[in-house]
Amino acid sequence: MAIAIGAAALACGATGAALYRCRPRDPIFEVQNIELKGFNVRFAKLMAVVDAQLVITIKVINPNVAPIEYTSTTMDIFYQGVLLGQAIVEAGDQGPNSKEVIQVQAKLDGQKMTKNLKELLTDVRKREMCMKSVVTIKGHARLWKWTHDFVVHVESTIKVDPVYLVVIDQDNKVHMELAPLVS
Question: What is the DSSP string of 88-136?
Fold first, then answer.
């Protein structure tokens, strides 16, 4: 009798540990590098405007036991509350318990940067510019025959050296919403 109770307790403990390991966890997004790809000069309202083209390198970590697939989406990039530009995040997939590095192309509107010219010049002088990016990624995880939809909302506050485009510091807030299981 004592052996049966011990075996049942062990089985319950193992099941609990397995369920704890399989619980859904927030993916991790970390901006690793911002590379200036080039400038584009255009004329608007009797003045020349310089748009910047960037390549943003992002490390994505999937800590879950199931592979994920996600749809294409747009990342919005803000400075001082003004939408400066957008980057397209292509659709893709990622294996379980894996790390991947993705690169997204972004274009920043130079005319919108002039709305906060005083703050921009101050930040360039301080060599510290605080930007914000927001992206919502929709996708699903598949485990055997079950499909589990998710929505991940990532809000990043990134401090960048505006002269050398080096990431100084960042704070990422990730909120994941899980839909009910669908078979």
Answer: EE--EEE-TTEEEEEEEEEEE-HHHHGGGHHHHHHHHHHT-EEEEEEEE
